[in-house]
Amino acid sequence: MKIISSAEMKELDRMTIAECGMPGEWLMERAGLGVARAVEYLSDLSGYSRLPVCIFAGRGNNGGDAFVVARYMKEWGADVRVWLTCERSAVQGDAKSHLIRLLALGVSVEEFVEVSDFEMLAASGLDCGIVVDGVLGIGIKGPARGVAAAAIRCINSLGTNSPVVAIDIPSGMDADTGEAGGDVVCSDLTVTMAYPKTGLAMPIAYDFVGSVDVVDIGVPASFAEKIDAPLDLVTASDLYDVCPVRSRSAHKGDFGHVLLIGGAPGYAGAIALAAGAALRSGCGLVTVLTSTETAPIVASIVPEAMVHGVAPSDFLKKMEELPEFDAILAGPGMTTSSDTKDLLTALLAMNGAPLVLDADALNIFSANGKALLGAKREVVITPHPGEAARLLDCTAVEIQSDRLKYARELEKVTGAIVVLKGAGSLIAGKGERCSINLTGNPGMATGGSGDVLAGLLVGLLGQHIEPYNAAKLAVYLHGSAGDEAAWSSSQGGMKAGDIIQAIPMAFRRVVTR
Q1: Is residue 196 in some structural domain?
Q2: Cα–Cα distance between 107 and 109 in angstroms, integer?
Q3: d(CA 136, CA 58)
Q4: Do 221 and 258 share a domain, yes or no?
Q5: Which stretch of DSSP H or E encloses residue 212?
Q6: pLDDT per residue over 99-108, tens digit each?
Q7: Cα 18 off chain centre by
């Protein structure tokens, strides 16, 4: 999905209203319903039965969206409170219509017109299940001021102990640059309307954007065809048709057989986590080729996988005895030994199934990313910034200074499909538009998380999903599973295995069954 500017979004809104006969009030209804569904979902994951929802609304369209959220949450049984950053008489247009409907339900809508009002609310110790930010929208330029700024500070204070959901963009953030000239809401989830805004994808904004969901409010896709956007956001709607349909008469052989290679002595966990994720990917069969010493450990952790233990120097010979595979992963817990280098060199020189290179399989090619160019099979690489820097012979600081530039450079140098991991993981492929993923959270910054992504990716490739789409789907599911795990427990207590356990629920975002 294209990432667009605030001006382009306003034009799309205008065209939808003028050319499709859809009134602004109706678009606002769709927007608020989408946010309400996200709030309800978080409520369910958090285990609340009657969730308190505290909603902050400004006088503009974001406030109108917030009124719709409040109305739906009230109708669904939540305990709802709403704070306005102005007098009710200042609310006009479509937002006023929705405010009137909200008041008719008997929802408390308090007018806070002084900075001190929000300061007292912040100090009150109010129990907020979920906080919803509808103070400022994409039309605001420059820092938040006065009562709006006070409302933002209040939201952040209450958000210390409660999840925060921002409507369209976090209030106080520039929708185009991602910059915050003053106070800005620090959200856990931003539910943006129709198309993601450019500021949401800027690294400077990651700390206050959180994960990003997109709500379809009825803007025809054809209206955005002429917009020249350099970057796409990976969204659930982009992935609906990627997963293969599973016939009721299917058997395990219909969904691919993948091989995972790695796990030197002392590193059994890496390859076991990758295998566990591959098993959760939907592929039919998973085989692990690991060291003799490691094999019993891996087999005990992932009993569903077929585990073979041999000396690393005999990996290639053992592969000749095994059946053909639909995708291969090499790297987790592999070490950078001469045996590893010989194996990878041989794999790259062979025609065959797609090959995913991760961890030490990438470090083997330090400062020589061009060595991958001659591969006779499709290659997908999943470097973190440090590994990317070693491939390009630069520094991780340089990579992080312009992640989009270096993701594209890495694709050109290696000829591989690139998944540059980190906050705002990027996917680059030859002839493809570059994509960014904005699911996931800081709880995923834990050992083994990258192994989970690599295993998930090879499992998807094993189902014969086109490699670039498989990379996008893997990154999206990985981040979404991390979000599922965090919302149902916590970020601080998360481990890589929790992400694996949440993968089945993450699939529900892109498939029905």
Answers
A1: yes
A2: 6
A3: 6
A4: no
A5: strand 211-215
A6: 999 999 999 8
A7: 34
- Domain membership flag for residue 310: yes
pTM above 0.90, yes or no: yes
**CA angle (165 as vertex; 163, 167 as ends), nearest 5:** 170
> Which of 386, 275, 397, 377 has the alpha carbon at shortest distance from 331?
275
Tell which of 229, 244, 276 closes a domain: 229
Beta strands in 275-396 (DSSP E): 285-290, 306-309, 327-330, 355-357, 379-381
On whether the CB atoms of residues 435 and 201 are closer than 8 A, the answer is no
Alpha-carbon span 479 to 483, nearest angstrom: 6
Together in a domain, 52 and 138: yes
Place of tokens 């005990």: 300
Residue 258 shares a structural domain with residue 225: no
323 beta partners: none
State how far the Cα of 357 lies from the Cα of 106, in Å rounded to an integer. 58
Domain count within the chain:
2
Q: What is the length of the chain?
A: 513
315-350 tens-digit pLDDT: 999 999 999 999 999 999 999 999 999 999 999 999
**What is the structure's pLDDT at 27?**
97
Is pLDDT at 479 greater than 70 in this prediction?
yes
Taking the mean position of all CA atoms in its chain, how far away is CA 294? 33
**R_g (Cα) of the chain, nearest Å:** 24
Q: Give the 3-state secondary structure of residue 188.
A: coil
Cα distance between residue 286 and residue 85, in whole Å: 56
